[in-house]
Write a structure and sequence with these properties.
It contains nine helices and seven strands, in the order αααβαβαββαβαααββ. By secondary structure, the protein is of the alpha/beta class.
Length: about 250
């Protein structure tokens, strides 16, 4: 399995924005049994976050969905906030999100690298904003994690709150892909595509959160384990569910 993973991952572009844009450019189908690894095609995972979102996020503020992809979570969040803004580094992802969100008046999308200096300025207009991040930090290098978090402070201001949910699978890459249904003979197509085209993921749990969002700068309001739901690629129960971690934080000033 290891040689096969090395061979597949060797073709992934080293330039992160380029890798993500090429990936989304090649996606023809989203939703259930589509081509996107982390797209379950339903709102079950989002509804599992709803209690925490409603406890801590100001419902009068807009919400910014960082790393929105094709906008499935952005569209779901739009039911609970006056405005939902999806942000992604990929032009092709945002173009697809706009097509899939046609007719939704309180949903909009922006192409932006949220690790770039000043990327948070003006993203939600003149107001503070809530932030929703699902499955982004665990695929970033530590320096990019720190840059992203720095931009979040500009976004949330004094009233906004950050909700994050990340993959926190404790195991090596072989364990991870095996959990998702890979075998020596076969790798499900959405998983193989991600291995071949995207940066190798890590994991993000309490220790990583405490490092990148330290208590002197961020107040931790709530955290704990969650389940990240992926595309159902096999008929084996549990293979589409990944152990994860969520946290709700507010910037200290």
């Amino acid at each position: 399995m290891v040689p096969k993973l090395i061979r597949l991952s060797r073709s992934a572009p080293k330039d992160r924005p380029l890798a993500w844009d090429r990936y989304w450019a090649g996606i023809a189908a989203t939703g259930p049994r589509g081509e996107v690894l982390w797209d379950s095609g339903n709102d079950h995972e989002l509804l599992g976050y709803l209690d925490a979102l409603q406890r801590h996020l100001d419902p009068g503020l807009p919400v910014v969905d960082i790393g929105c992809g094709h906008g499935s979570f952005t569209r779901g969040l739009a039911a609970f906030f006056p405005q939902a803004i999806g942000v992604d580094v990929s032009d092709h992802a945002v173009a697809r999100a706009r097509r899939e969100s046609a007719g939704m008046e309180n949903v909009s999308y922006v192409v932006r690298d949220m690790t770039a200096p000043g990327a948070g300025h003006g993203l939600a207009g003149p107001t503070d904003a809530n932030v929703f991040i699902r499955g982004v930090l665990h695929v970033l290098e530590p320096a990019d994690q720190a840059a992203l978090v720095g931009n979040l402070r500009d976004l949330v201001g004094t009233r906004g709150t950050v909700f994050l949910a990340e993959t926190n699978f404790q195991g090596d890459p072989v364990d991870y892909v095996t959990h998702l249904g890979a075998t020596i003979r076969d790798i499900p197509a959405p998983l193989e595509r991600a291995i071949r085209e995207l940066p190798m993921p890590g994991h993000f749990g309490p220790s990583e959160c405490g490092r990148v969002m330290p208590p002197e700068a961020w107040e931790l309001l709530e955290d704990g384990p969650v389940t990240i739901e992926t595309n159902r690629m096999t008929d084996v129960a549990g293979e589409s569910l990944i152990p994860g971690y969520f946290a709700v934080l507010r910037a200290r000033h």
